[in-house]
Amino acid sequence: MDIGVVELSRLQFAATALFHFLFVPLTLGLSVIVAIMETVYVMTDRPIWRQMTKFWGMLFGINFALGVATGVTMEFQFGMNWAYYSHYVGDIFGAPLAIEGLMAFFLEATFVGLWFFGWDRLTRRQHLVVGWLVAIGSNFSALWILIANGWMQFPVGAQFNPITMRMELVSFFDVVFNPVAQAKFVHTVSAGYVTASAFVLGVSAWYLLKGRHIDLARRSIAVASAFGLASALSVVVLGDESGYDAGANQKMKMAAIEAMWHTEPAPAPFTVIGWPNQETRETKWALHIPYVMGLIGTRSLTEEITGIYELEQQAEARVRNGISAYDLLMQIQDQRATGVDPALLERFRAVDADLGHAMLLKAYVDDPRQATEEQIKAAAADTIPTVWPIFWAFRIMVGVGMVLIAGMAYFFWRASFKRMSFPRWSLQAALVMLPLPWIAAEMGWIVAEYGRQPWTVAGVLPTAMSVSHLSVAEVALTLAGFCVIYTALFVVEMGLMVKYIRKGPHEDIEVTRDWMTRHRNLLSSGLTEVQK
């Protein structure tokens, strides 16, 4: 198989996924923040909260539209660039995507329209319900996408059928409640909430620096800082859960995150910084914090985290065992026309868990049974991802997360206890902080997806086998097309966002005047009653 097609297909999907994920976190978070603001408006009847809801809702709508446009194309790529993957695991992977489209996306898209055009057609409470349904739909979309992705990271609830040569679903419950998928969902959604909070905080800070829309900006900072602080703290807690799941179910990824070349005595230390060298298999200039990685990965002081070298040895044993599985599979295929011997199927079931490791040999030899010792060792070495991108992406993500927690805590303190007074330097810092959640989110996806290599489905299907039968020129052409179109969409997105932020919220003067009149009348009647 032409490795150029594999690399280009991976690059294309990575580029489109990372670009799409520029919009997803903001959509997840803004949908909830807007619903919170509208809830306050319905409870208080204050026009300023209606104004805030409409303004941030407009920015949500722009981002939502671009997120949909960039997300739909990703699903088409499974048929375009990853045809064998779609054939091999479509029974399992397709189910969450279908549910996401039928239930979550339709719910979200339908009620987005009602939300924007229903202000004068629905009662306040009806419109509020619509707003919360938009937020729920957004989060449900993330849930089913991450269930599908979580299955790729840790495939459960499925079994390989040697007759049809495909993976088949055996437990939908196990797929839905996959621990890796659930941990990824709550961690990703919380990161989206932080992203939206930083966005609202940054834009509001810009208004205060310009001396515009002061009332709206201060209240928006109060909401964003409280919501963002709670979300940032939950990201840490839920990230710890993801680390524990990786330690239990994705041992090679955990070892790569830490650049742990050899198994160390428990509890393992956390490497704050260092320089991983994959050729010599050592980390130079490493600075360690004792016990921390052991607690994250195992939640104990006595369990070890297996090192890369030892995991490679285990992979070599699985490759050898997988060759036996492949041999039995070929015998089963030979008997398909006349009927498969049940004893042969039973023997295959005893070793089929390692069949995917034998498939790694397809990169070196057409028939894994003909593999040499050198090829077996090379296939085992392929199970080690490139360490330095994962190592650094994880540390950038964690470092940015700590900065965001500190920033959110500061603004929450100023909003809650300093009467919403913010020094000029802090408002400038909020603008600098605005892009940080996106950086952390993209780094997180690099850790999650790059750390899964060389597998499309961990331990089941190698990436090199998953691609469609395309030429390098065909994939390169579509990659260039995506880059051009997505760049144009990004320019449109940024142009619209900047335009409406500069324009600012629409002030409903008549609504505000009516509210102030009613409010004065209530105060006057209350004062009269007290005087009586």
Q: Any chance you could write out the topology, listing elements then pairs?
A:
Elements: H1 3-20, H2 24-44, H3 47-80, H4 83-117, H5 124-153, E1 158-161, E2 166-169, H6 172-176, H7 179-210, H8 214-249, H9 251-258, E3 270-277, E4 282-289, H10 292-298, H11 308-334, H12 342-351, H13 355-359, H14 373-381, H15 387-417, H16 424-433, H17 436-450, E5 455-457, E6 461-462, H18 463-466, H19 472-503, H20 509-531
Antiparallel strand pairs: 1-2, 3-4, 5-6
Helix pairs in contact: 1-3, 1-19, 2-3, 2-5, 2-7, 3-4, 3-19, 4-5, 5-7, 7-8, 7-16, 7-17, 8-9, 8-10, 8-15, 9-15, 11-12, 11-14, 15-16, 15-17
InterPro entries: Cyt-d_ubiquinol_oxidase_su_1
Protein name: Cytochrome bd-I ubiquinol oxidase subunit CydA
Transmembrane segments: 17-43, 55-72, 92-117, 129-147, 185-209, 221-239, 392-413, 425-448, 468-492
Please describe the structure with a list of short key phrases separated by commas or semicolons.
two-stranded antiparallel ribbon, 532 residues, single chain, mainly alpha, globular
- Strand fraction band? 5-15%
Rg over CA atoms, rounded to whole Å, is 27 Å
SSE pattern = HHHHHEEHHHHEEHHHHHHHHEEHHH
Number of domains: 1
* Count of alpha/pi helices: 20
How many strands in all?
6
Q: Helical residue percent?
A: over 70%
Structural class given helices, strands, pairing? mainly alpha
Largest sheet: 2 strands, antiparallel
The gross shape turns out to be: globular
